[in-house]
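Figure 3 (text version): structure tokens given as input.
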């Protein structure tokens, strides 16, 4: 198996979370999905494991942060500014909260953010490294 990242997220409602992530472009991998967990694939190297709270608690005794707290912000690279705007729009239309932090536009990099229905924060972003300022 090549190097990959699987981010485990405790979710309030597994079916609602699965629907949300499918709406913004993730695909479900049924091989790793049951009534307690769902594998949602973003790319060949990045997937989310959505876990019910009961399933999450089989992995750790650490408390689950409340939905209005941030434990991490996951950046997701996209191919264009328009794709960033589209994901933020779809997040808002499908039970998430768009722009939980202000959009940032540096010219060569553009970011927005959203919180999923369980409060996890993601940052869709686009970057053109060829337009990045140099410090020469």
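Below: residues designed for each position.
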């Amino acid at each position: 198996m090549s190097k990959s990242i699987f981010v485990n997220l405790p979710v309030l409602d597994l079916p609602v979370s699965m629907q949300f992530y499918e709406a913004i472009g993730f695909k479900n991998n049924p091989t790793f999905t049951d009534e307690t967990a769902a594998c949602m694939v973003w790319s060949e190297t990045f997937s989310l494991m959505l876990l019910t709270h009961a399933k999450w608690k089989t992995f750790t005794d650490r408390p689950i942060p409340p939905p209005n707290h941030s434990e991490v912000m996951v950046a997701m690279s996209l191919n264009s500014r328009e794709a960033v705007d589209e994901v933020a729009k779809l997040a808002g239309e499908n039970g998430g909260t768009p722009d939980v932090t202000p959009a940032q536009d540096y010219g060569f990099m553009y970011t927005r953010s959203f919180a999923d229905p369980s409060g996890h924060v993601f940052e869709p972003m686009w970057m053109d490294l060829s337009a990045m300022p140099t410090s020469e």
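Helices lie at 14-23, 53-56, 81-93.
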